[in-house]
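sorry to bug you again but im stuck and you know this stuff better than me. theres a chain ive been looking at and ive put its sequence and its fold in token form underneath. id like you to explain what the token line says about the fold, in plain words if possible. anything you notice is useful, everything is just below.
___
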Amino acid sequence: MNVFKQFYKSLYSPKDMALFRFQGIGKTIGYVFLLMFICSSITAVSIGNDLRKFSAMAIDKIATDLPEFTLNNSELTSELDSPLITENYGFTFIFDTTGELTAEDVFTYTNAIGLLKNEAVFVSETERQRLPYSTFGNLTINKEMLIKSTEQFKTIILILLPIAFIFMYLLQTSFKLIGISFLALIGLIIANQLKRSLPYSAFWILSAYAVTIPTLFFAITDALKIHIPFAIFLYWMTASIVLYLIIVEIPKSKQSQHNDDPKLPE
């Protein structure tokens, strides 16, 4: 059975997954790389879409909504006498050179970009970042220069995204392999209770397929920006339940069956 068919079977059939215990470790590792490639691709598409929206919004807002401004000596200045707050593309854009707003004010929004007097602030569903202008040293920039830089950013994204994808893919795959190794230990405990006797390597193989459903599910929910409470707990609970259902499908050894049979009195 090829890995694509195994992926399909791993979405619904514990009975078929139980048969995978006879295959080699090498093929199983290849399956894990396939699974993580699919999930990393979902994440990469989501990130790329967010960056596209960000660059489109930035160019639109800078060119049409912002007044002339200057960033000099780590301070943003303009002729505005009150904060400018607009919403578009699912983001909130905040421009304030008066010092009236702080990073904490920007953090009250779900998706926002704030250009404040002394720092830039970025907010998403899962992340908050503050970038003081002092980080750039004695950089001097104005509206025209920023528009050109933002347009260049769209080109840079096309170069950086594949590199970021490869790094993210390899990192996530490494963590997944470690997680599978831990889940296999849980499988040993479950098997002992169910009186199934298999080597650790077999449980490692079965664990690789048991994580398919929770891994794919959380990749999709993260891409859709759906917040799942207690996500880590739910991940491990789901993976353990699937592994349990797989182990149940494994026949007991003859020795275990013999021990379960009550002896008839002589």
Summary: The beta strands are 69-72, 75-78, 84-88, 91-95, 112-115, 119-123, 128-132, 141-142. The longest helix spans residues 143-194. DSSP finds nine helices and eight strands in the chain.
